[in-house]
Amino acid sequence: MADHIKKARPHVNQNEDLIFERSSAGKCAYQLPPLDVPPADTGALGGFTRDEIPGFPEVSEMEIVRHFTRLSTWNYGVDTGAYLLGSCTMKYNPKINELVARLKGIANVHPYQPQEASQGCLKVLKLLSESLLEITGMDAITLQPAAGAHGEMTALLMVHAYLASQGNPRHKVLIPDSAHGTNAASAAMAGYKTLNLPSNSEGMVDLATLERLMDDDVAALMLTNPNTLGIFEERIAEIARIVHARGGLVYMDGANMNALVGVSRPGDFGVDVLHLNLHKTFSTPHGGGGPGAGPVAVRKQLEPFLPIPTLIEKPDGSLALDYDRPASIGRVRAFYGNFGVLVRALAYILANGAEGLRESTEEAVLNSVYVRKNLEDSYELPYKRPALHECVFSDKRQAQHGVHTGDIAKRLIDYGFHPYTVSFPLIVPGALMIEPTESESKQELDLLIDALRSIAREAEQEPETVLHAPHTTRIARVDEVQAARRPILRWKPEPRT
Amino acid sequence: MRYIPKSPEERETMLRAVGCDSIDQLFESIPSALRLGRELRLDRGRSEPEILRYFEERAAENAGDFACFVGAGAYDHFRPSVVDAMISRSEFYTAYTPYQPEISQGTLQAIFEFQTLMCQLTGMDVANASLYDGSTALPEAVMMAVRANGRRRVLLARSIHPEYRQVLNTYLQHQNIALDEIPWGNSGQADHAELQARVGSDVSAVVLQSPNFFGVVEDVAAATKIAHAAGALLVVMITEPVSLGILHPPAEADIVAGEGQSLGVPLSFGGPYVGFVATREKYIRSMPGRLVGQTTDSRGERSFCLTLATREQHIRREKATSNICTNQALCALMVTVYLSVYGKKGFRELALQNVAKTQYAQKKFLKAGASLRFSGPHFNEFIVRGEGSRGLDAKLRQERIIGGLDLGRFYPELEGDRLFCFTETASREKIDKLVEVYAAHELTVHAAQQQRS
């Protein structure tokens, strides 16, 4: 291990087979209580029965615990160290959030319990709704969408329904070339064609181009603000004016709300509808890829179109779910949303309060600006405007030595960090997109800066070291081409010989 | 703020290093007119004991420790302690989507195991890495069928979870896909004569749920024959996968969409849950959602990574198979641990206990003079005909029982009927109490009706 790698050193971890390969007949990890009723009459199942499931695991409790514990040690989480993925906001996931989400009376409430017996859950939904409306400056909200992309689809269906109610749903949605890929896919699900809006030389919306493309057939502009370069669209008010003047709506992808909470509100700068990612801005754990939650907040005129059910207060002060909403786009999922995620987000808001939320935003921006300032000499900064919570470099200088952003990312793993977002946004060739969040200390950031500077030196002096990284992980670089060419998507027992 | 790891002095040092005198300077790119200029109107930050108290108070306002005899797409099964212990490993729950396979092998291998388990359960060849939930897996499966054969009409059993059908309507409203309903027959199964009459060469897929919303087990093989004869695919929706411990898997179908909540995921007032789609090998490239594949690293060691991403939104954008950008990895991990705990023998025994409790409850209801709506085979839910259940919930609550779902809210023709669910957690004592309260209530309702007439 090179002694210039200060944060990480290799350690032993355990090998572990697939759970199926640990299996042997007769081992078990379960015991059911004795049956207090007569045994099942399988004859009453109409002949639709099966035998034991071939290949299903037969393992003991100890082996299960070792199995999953060992697997966990092959992962890297926010609790392990800085997780630099830009646009993902990998902030600390407070432990109290996990505790409250598991309380009896929270974790075990059935969604069809009578509403009188679910008032506690409904109050959680109400307080979270009110908090998010204050934070965004919007008028109404649904907490139901399960993720950001689900929120996008929900929002665009509402845009469609609203414009249809005005006489013409229109056919197109404008999407900047710096946007997340989900934007276009979600627009397609709401029946819209997408129109590419090229960014200007500063990485921002070009007003002249917007004027030209914005016509009576454009339903909405989907804007990420700050955009995926971390740059605030400072002419957002004019952008909104242009879109509104032609009868369109401004949709904001709230992926980057961590730059704005407590400082600026979308409802105050012309946004008509936006989605939030509670698993980004509001600290709920990413879980290795979900679950998340993607609430959608809207201005007054879109409220009638919110998905069912909505939350209402009855005259006696009790809370209820309202299904009688004739203009609604309908239901976007069963039940009421990812309640367990919503609980965690509310716990985060309660812990922070107004002051803590603003302070978190400030620290997130300070951390990113600090990283950017300290890496400007080592990496190309394609867009020079001041940015907020994330910064985007390119691999232009390193590419001269044959080293690309993907290689630098792999080498960063050796230095003990989870890499940044690779090759996104698409408007920056060879992008390194770094979002440190407010959760990193100065010490961790200084180590990161050292690491990235050191890799820049390696790219010049010993590019092979970078090109074959990572060197310290339990497995070496993975052959992703082979995985796609000959897909093996499940385990199968060895054929008996 | 206690989550921010910085001393005031470090903050000052960093500010100076970036050439700023104040934090406000960092936000100068936001025009001052668009800055809030005040504190948010939210309370002060709360300490841990205060946060805990707030949620304990809310928990106390819910009926948290009642016996729960409601299913309808969310099932009260016992969660072995190992499940929460394993998903609480923070390397699992604080990780992102496994884009960097070299430091994500734990998540990737666990998902590969999940995909395998879903195949074993359903009898399909491949399964995805999971979707948001069962209700959104249904439209994903339907759109997948439409992609696979290009036809644009879909036949849907009316006995599919009503909220799932609503979600399907929402998803399809701009997709130019027509939906048509198949009614149920006296057994509670989809009416195959009606299916036969409605299926045709324009039909992309026939969709059934089994066990259906009423707990009745469908004849998937027979329905598949009818669908296939017309060149349509058969899509099976599974909302209660514990049933697959004893019931024949829908192996004849072309696509299976499911909800995995039953398998170790808390009820949590309706979410987060975990959906999935499984299918035959030949439809892999029409599949929505993430997939994990096995490969090797540059040293030849077995390893895993996300694969076949060319179907997905970050590459295909508006032409993607779905806009989904995630799976429900942590809930899928709960399922994987849960099924490992029960395993081959336990999962069958678990399913049989569900059947035993349900059959016991059916007999109790019949003995008390109640009648069951459907004659077909049931797994762990059934409908008791009722004259009107107003007031019943309040009586049951006094006995700390959440009992039965009045079907009138979804099916006007079943107004007053109640859908009950009995899992392995139902005790004989509570079942007896439920039936006793129910029967007494029905008697008073009857008496009141007779007095009126």
**CATH topology call of the largest domain in chain A:** Aspartate Aminotransferase, domain 2
Physical arrangement of strands within the biggest beta sheet of chain A: 1-7-6-5-4-2-3
Write down the overall mean pLDDT of chain A.
96
Please give the order of strands in the largest beta sheet of chain B. Answer: 2-8-7-6-5-3-4
Which segments of chain A are poorly predicted (pLDDT under 50) over 5 or more consecutive residues? none
Q: What spatial form of chain A do the alpha-carbon principal axes imply?
A: globular
Number of domains of chain B: 2
Question: What is the secondary structure topology, with strand pairs?
Answer:
The complex is a heterodimer of chains A (497) and B (453).
Chain A: H1 61-73, H2 95-101, H3 119-136, E1 140-142, H4 148-165, E2 172-176, H5 181-189, E3 193-197, H6 207-213, E4 218-224, H7 236-245, E5 249-253, E6 273-275, E7 296-298, E8 310-313, E9 319-322, H8 339-375, E10 391-394, H9 396-399, H10 405-414, E11 421-422, E12 431-434, H11 442-461, H12 463-467, H13 480-485
Parallel strand pairs in A: 2-3, 2-4, 4-5, 5-6
Antiparallel strand pairs in A: 1-7, 6-7, 8-9, 10-12, 11-12
Helix pairs in contact in A: 2-8, 3-8, 4-5, 8-11
Chain B: H1 8-17, H2 48-60, E1 67-69, H3 81-87, H4 90-93, H5 105-122, E2 126-127, H6 134-149, E3 153-157, H7 162-172, E4 178-182, H8 192-198, E5 203-209, H9 220-229, E6 233-238, E7 255-259, E8 275-279, E9 292-296, E10 302-306, H10 313-316, H11 329-367, E11 381-384, H12 392-398, E12 401-403, E13 405-406, E14 418-421, H13 428-452
Parallel strand pairs in B: 1-12, 3-4, 3-5, 5-6, 6-7
Antiparallel strand pairs in B: 2-8, 7-8, 9-10, 11-14, 13-14
Helix pairs in contact in B: 3-11, 5-11, 6-7, 11-13
